[in-house]
Every structure is written in structure tokens, then in C-alpha cells.
Amino acid sequence: MALPTLTPEQRADALKKAAAARTARKELRDAIARGDETIPAVLDRAKSDTIVGKTKVADLLKSLPGYGPAKVSALLEQTGIDASRRAAGLGDRQRQALLDALK
After folding, report:
1. What digits encode the pLDDT tens for the residues 44-77?
2. Cα distance between residue 26 and residue 3, in whole Å
3. Stated pTM of the model
4. Residue 61, by phi and psi: left (phi above 0), alpha (psi -120 to 50) or beta?
5. Where is the Integration host factor-like helix-two turn-helix domain (predicted)?
6. What distance in Å separates the CA atoms of residue 21 and residue 93, rounded to the nearest whole number?
7. 57: part of which helix (H) or strand (E)?
8. Both ends of the chain: CA-CA distance in Å?
9. Residue 11, phi then psi, degrees to nearest 5
10. Which of 53, 83, 94, 97 could form a disulfide with 79 if both were Cys (CB 3.0 to 4.6 A apart)?
């Protein structure tokens, strides 16, 4: 499937939209790191908020203080969640397993 040909204006708009989404995801990760947001609260919004929903679960977990790549990988493996899974793609069982493992 070939990519659609975009006009320069459409391309500029798409680039602005992508940059805004990256900035919003960065602000979300920063809020988790500061403790302003919690993982349960963020996961509750995953289905309704597209920014949260499109963020990888591993990235959300790495934002937690004390959780680096090794600890996050072990936690995801323990709960049976693929490292590339996005927040909106978590099933009820996966979500509950993740929250139980974080307690």
C-alpha cells in the first residue's frame, strides 16, 4: 500500500500534529515522574484519551521513579504484556495484572 501524496500544507499540518502529540506524551511522562499522575489513573483514561492510549505501557512505567529498562522489562514479562503494547491495547486481565504487580 503506497503512502498518499500530501500537499506541502497537508504535510506541514501533519508535522505540527505529530509534534504536538509527542509534546503531550512527554508532559504525561513528566507528570508521572513528578507524582502528579498515577499509573492506575492514567490507565483509566487510556480508552478515552488518545494521547494516553497511544503511549506505550513500557514508556509509562519507565517514567515511574525507580523503574528503569531492566525492571520494566521484568515487570512486563511477569505480567505477560508485550513490550510494544500501547496503553489503550491492554486487556482487562493485563491491566489488572499490571496494577497488582505495581502494589
Report:
1. 999 999 999 999 999 999 999 999 999 999 999 9
2. 28
3. 0.85
4. alpha
5. 35-100
6. 28
7. helix 57-62
8. 45
9. -65, -45
10. 97
